[in-house]
């Protein structure tokens, strides 16, 4: 337990980055942003259950 | 159906948007929707937590630093002694340093608070911890009895010699500190104090000594964090993890975990040459973001910006059912 | 005690614009009650229906954000009751920390999609500007709350974030009092002051939506079928 708290931080991983030049986006953030965009588009185009029916 | 376009103003007028809806309604159970929402979000939260977990990289202790990068530690300790570290020259709220503040023209907000969190790097980070040991180095007396000019001369000379022997760009990677690599010179007690601090740090005693300067229950980690940041090891770890300002670091997280993607615009300005690398970058970026946030809040008052939804009619998708049955 | 109409009857009387003399209330309390009932009668606060145009998936994201907030708070309470270093040494603690992280990500995902939707719907129309403003303020306050949360991780990330963030706060002169390296102070901000601020602003935001109703479609017309075929529809006002 003590070892966990005082362990040398060798577990700091850089992660996967996409991009070119100065613009680098991390994979996790890219997925989150893509999810936002996809949800937004889906929310606009997916049909909504007809009137009279509650969600 | 009239073709006259309704205004996009926020104002209450004599139009349909301003009046309570008197038209057709549909059954809509708010509490049921909220319940469904809570269940769905709960399943998503638990699923993501089980599937991906969360990052937790251990803190960097002064001990870890001293063991992993002793040359970097010694160089930083010497800089703290000599007052040449970033913290020593930071200005408010840690100390008084001329021209250290970030300003925009004549506006100097940084100095307004004065020195509210006083830090004397030579004492708080080096000599005070050394002196609480059961067997403090004898060189402490020599240091304490010297004049400030003499102290500065010793420390500067030693820092220069260290920079020559262990250049800042590479010293974090040096696994050992070899005092014999440093050129001989008139450094007074500085080498002994710096290496004495290294030994103290490597045993783990320095972490507690610095924190306990604020008492047993001290929860203020300012000194320890500033000390860490003055070295190149700690910053190097952040750099390797893409967390520094010029790497969009503000929105990043270690590994592949999503970070604070909503800070994308805040991070963006630190990538812009002229803004992000300016000496007053922080006050510039904070200022820009405050202005943009206020602008977002007052979009309804901004002609053009508030009319854009009409010209890019995504709303026709939202209300396609309504428009098709008019 | 004066004889007054039952609240429900009074509501209906007010709503139907019937010719009933409003009560003569003289106390601050009474006048406030009267105003509140006028502005937000109970059937407006908790309605059984919505206008027919509220029929799109875009409308679920506001509720989704509130639902996420429920889990942020539950997981946050468990984490704080066990102290900020607990989750490093407990497997269950680590799990709760994970739920806290992901409910926060879900919170921001739903809030951002909600913001995008409301912008393209120009939801501030018809006197709803305060709804928009409280929405933006809750966004900003949530960002600050999330930031203080990152400071409480008591790991490398919080050390680094504290080290970097101090510069922004010091540059604008508040770093002396808002010390990101002071765990005790940041704990107070993150688990008490900022959640309270978020809760209050979100509650205000939701109340405003109930008061004004969901914004009608852009260019909705008085001659639209949805407005002309209901019973008791009033043709109030003509100029558009």
Please write out the topology.
The complex is a heterotrimer of chains A (55), B (326) and C (240).
Chain A: H1 2-6, E1 17-20, E2 23-26, H2 27-45
Antiparallel strand pairs in A: 1-2
Chain B: E1 25-27, H1 30-52, H2 62-68, H3 70-82, H4 121-131, H5 139-145, H6 148-165, H7 190-203, H8 205-211, H9 222-230, H10 232-240, H11 264-269, H12 281-297, H13 308-311, H14 315-318, H15 320-324
Chain C: H1 7-15, H2 28-39, H3 42-45, E1 49-51, H4 60-81, H5 86-89, H6 91-120, H7 129-151, H8 156-171, H9 183-212, H10 225-228
Can you describe this structure in just a few lines?
The complex is a heterotrimer of chains A (55), B (326) and C (240). Chain B has helices spanning 30-52, 62-68, 70-82, 121-131, 139-145, 148-165, 190-203, 205-211, 222-230, 232-240, 264-269, 281-297, 308-311, 315-318, 320-324, and one strand at residues 25-27.
What this model shows, in words?
With 55 residues, chain A is α+β, with helices and mostly antiparallel strands. Chain A contains two helices and two strands; from the N terminus they run αββα. Chain A has helices spanning 2-6, 27-45, and strands spanning 17-20, 23-26. In chain A, a hairpin with a 2-residue loop joins strand 1 (17-20) and strand 2 (23-26). Mean pLDDT of chain A is 76; it is low at 1-8 and 51-55. The termini of chain B are close together. Chain B is built from 15 helices and one strand; from the N terminus they run E-H-H-H-H-H-H-H-H-H-H-H-H-H-H-H. Chain B has helices at 30-52, 62-68, 70-82, 121-131, 139-145, 148-165, 190-203, 205-211, 222-230, 232-240, 264-269, 281-297, 308-311, 315-318, 320-324; one strand at 25-27. By secondary structure, chain B is an all-alpha fold. The mean pLDDT of chain B is 94. Chain B has a domain at 62-240. Among the domains of chain C are: 56-121; 124-213, no CATH class. The longest helix of chain C is centred in the middle third of the chain and has 30 residues, at 91-120. Chain C has helices at residues 7-15, 28-39, 42-45, 60-81, 86-89, 91-120, 129-151, 156-171, 183-212, 225-228; one strand spanning 49-51. Chain C has 240 residues and is mainly alpha-helical. Chain C has ten helices and one strand, in the order αααβααααααα. The two termini of chain C are 47 Å apart. Classes of the chains: A alpha+beta (55), B mainly alpha (326), C mainly alpha (240). Chains B and C meet through strand 1, helix 1, helix 9, helix 10 and helix 12 of B and strand 1, helix 4, helix 6, helix 7 and helix 8 of C.
